[in-house]
Amino acid sequence: MATDSDHPMKGIMTSPLLSRRNVLLGGLGLASTATLAACTSSSSGTGVMPSRTFGPPTPVSPSPGQKVLEKTLTARPVSLDLGGRTVATWAYDGALPGPLVRATAGDFLRLTLDNQLPADTTIHWHGIRLPNAADGVPGLTQDPVKTGGKFVYEFTAPDPGTYFFHPHVGVQLDRGLYAPMIIDDPTDPGRYDAEWVVVLDDWIDGTGTTPDEVFKKLIADGGPANGGGMGGMGGMDHGSMSRMSMGTGPWGDAGDVTYPLFLINGKPPTDPDVLAAKPGQKVRLRVINAASDTIFTVALGGHRLTITHSDGHAVEPTEVGAFYIGMGERYDAIVTLADGAFPLVARPFGKTSGGQAMAVVRTGAGAAPPVAADPSELAGQVLIGSQLRPTEAAKLPGKEPDATVDLALQGSMKPYQWGMNGAKYGENEPLTVRAGRRLRINATNMTMMTHPLHLHGHTFALPSGLRKDTVLMAPMQSFAIDLDADNAGDWMIHCHNIYHAEAGMMIALEYR
Ligand code: C2O
Ligand code: CU
């Protein structure tokens, strides 16, 4: 993602008229961006932000008696076998997904990133309410970690839940650099017999291109000219293609990149991960969408799933046949297993090529499901996660907001420009809040595409009270999201489509 050195200018956009105009237009447009940039130089105040440097992190010590988990994660090039196809990529400890990091809420984590990549990197601990200095955003919370360099992340993981981690540099997330992170609840009896971590991904790296090349092409082509499921439909606008081929669905135009493969736990359907248990056993699924550009619909053939958590927070248990999961979202579900072999399918929403992601759940005899398994659950009603209800205990305590800010998600595919509040990251004005406030963010998606909106360092509450850190916003959808400003620092808010984020669909939330 963009760093300050990429964007030395930090624009000011104080005119409500200007910001209103951009909100109404939705798009950014080079002209308005240029206008904003021109404004900057003549504006007073905080205008130009110098490139920030941080130096090594200040060591943090665990409190007396606190349990400490230490681990080193080595980011390095590796060649992986994906169902008989060899791909050169980057991964943590050479594994896909990377190694699980697991601790108990309240534990002290000391996680060392060893950068053996031929590029700068960092690690962001997605969804964890940690101290700002450990958040992993280059230019905002730390210096980028150079090739051969190390960085020690130290923090206490306060909240139980299902999380993951990934770099916060460029489009590195779309390589193999991601891994699950589980924070256990010391008070949770765990009323299930087994637990499966299910990590979803869309895969292109090493298949004749790299995510960096994909990004360059998106910019150069002004959108997914031959991509995004356009196959053979050259000349037709990407949006209409998606609507035509996908029929109805809540997410409109859902992705920009054409992926040849979709993976569950690092494996394609031709060589699926096999999750084994006994018939009648109760299993907790921890589903993580680590994809960069793909919303999935998830179902386990022949089963109903009871959703229990969203982004780590407890929800009223809700039985579903299938559910959507956006990039960066996590859902936990309990399922009681039948006897046989069943497809656990994650079907890319709005994409017509590359097939689907699939793992096999096996509790008994029976033929393995085919690569193109089509569980009937996918044709039924599909849960939209933001409609889940929180448990009483998981609600943000009721309180009127004492500060309100607007957040417009803007942009277009042609030209490929994405931003927030009138400009791309580095040129848009940070949102600000004072510590102790209940902040309301009136977020509006002004585009014809769905975006997973993600906030660092906090969780927010939807109007229902549902706590999340990543929420899918459908085209033209608005949400008033509330948060307690109880974690001082400079934080990112961004679209978790990593190509949108890299194009500038990010904004900072700064404590003043
Ligand atoms: Cu998972 Cu700022 O990201
Ligand atoms: Cu987006």
Automatic annotation (TrEMBL):
It comes from the Bacteria. Residues 1-37 form the signal peptide. SUPFAM superfamilies: Cupredoxins. InterPro entries: Cu-oxidase-like_N (IPR011707), Cu-oxidase_2nd (IPR001117), Cu-oxidase_C (IPR011706), Cu-oxidase_fam (IPR045087), Cu_oxidase_Cu_BS (IPR002355), Cupredoxin (IPR008972), CuRO_3_CopA (IPR034279). Residues 41-66 are annotated as: Disordered. Residues 83-187, 262-358, 405-510 form the Plastocyanin-like domain. One of its GO terms (molecular function) is oxidoreductase activity. Transmembrane segments: none annotated. Keywords: Copper, Metal-binding, Oxidoreductase, Signal. Pfam families: Cu-oxidase, Cu-oxidase_2, Cu-oxidase_3. PANTHER family: FI03373P-RELATED, MULTI-COPPER OXIDASE. This is FtsP/CotA-like multicopper oxidase with cupredoxin domain. It comes from Calidifontibacter indicus.
